[in-house]
Amino acid sequence: MSQSAPEYTLAAHPTTVGDSRSSTKPVRVTPTLVIGGHDVIVAAGPCSVEGYDMLLASARHVQAAGGTLLRGGAFKPRTSPYAFQGLGEEGLLLLASVREQTGMPIVTEVMDTRQVARVAQIADVLQVGARNMQNFPLLAELGRAGKPVLLKRGASARISELLLAAEYVMANGNERVILCERGIRTFETITRNTLDISAIPVLKAETHLPVIVDPSHAGGRADLVLPLALAAIAAGADGLIVEVHPDPSAARSDADQQLTFAQFTDLMHGISLIAAATNRAVRKPISSPVVPNIAASDVATRSHDTRPLAEQTRAEETLAVVAA
Ligand code: PEP
Ligand code: MN
Description:
two-stranded antiparallel sheet; binds phosphoenolpyruvate; 324 residues; alpha/beta
C-alpha cells in the first residue's frame, strides 16, 4: 500500500519534525518582543474595547501582573447581528492611545479585507478570528499587510486546515504568523468549546510557527481559564491570549469567561510556576511607554512599518537568528 502524501506543506519553510522547541522560529512583534522564543508571552485584555477608562485600567493591571501585549476587539464578530458589534474606528483609537500610555503592543481583530490597511496602521499584531480562519481573500490581504498575524483555529477546522490557512498568509508574502488554538466544537456542550490540547505538541512538531492558546474562548467560563492555561503551558504553548475585564459581569461581550483582575494575577502566578517547571519563564513586561506624548493618529502612522516586505523579512530573519 503506498503512503499518501501529507495534506499540507509549508512552502515558505519546510516542515521540521523532531525537537519542537528548537525548530520554532520566533516571530518578531516589536524590536524588543518576539513570540515563540524562550519566554512564555501573555496577551490579555477585554474581549471588546468598551471605552477608554476600562481599557486603560485593564492594560495597567495586565502589565503589572506580567502580561506583555494588550488584547481588545474593536471590530467584533458576533453570532447575532443584534449583539454589540464593537466600537470600530473609535476602538482602534482607544487602543492606540492606551499603547501610548503603557507601551504595550496591541493585538486586535481584523474581520474584512476592507479593514486591513487601517487596522494594520494601528495594531502590532493582526488577529484573525476563528470565524474567519478560512476567509481566503482576508488571509491573502494579510500576507501583504506587513504586520504579524495571530491566526485562530476555526471551531470546526482540522489542524491541516489551520496550517493551510497559515500558508495562505505566508504564500502572499508574510511569514510572521502565530497560530492560536482556541477550542473546537465537539459533542460536549458543558463547555463553550473543547480545548484541543493535542494540537499544541502536534503544531509545535509539525511547523516552525509559534503556537499560543486562548483558554477564554475554549472553556467559555471564567472558572475554567486557569486550569486550561496551566495545561496549555505544560503542553508547550509559547503563550496565551486571555480575556480580562474590570467588571466581567458588566461586559458587553463574553461576560461569562472574562477574568477579574485578581483572577488574572492568580493565572500569571500559576503559569510562571509551570513555565519554570519546563525550563522557561514568563516574559517580563515592557513597562515604559514606547511612544510618549504623541497623538493617537501619529502613533498609528509611526507604528506602520512601511519598508518593503522583502526588507522586513530579511531583518526579521536576522533578528530571529540573534534571538534563537
Ligand atoms: C475573540 O478573541 O474575542 C474572539 C472573537 O475569539 P474567536 O475568534 O476565537 O472566537
Ligand atoms: Mn471574546
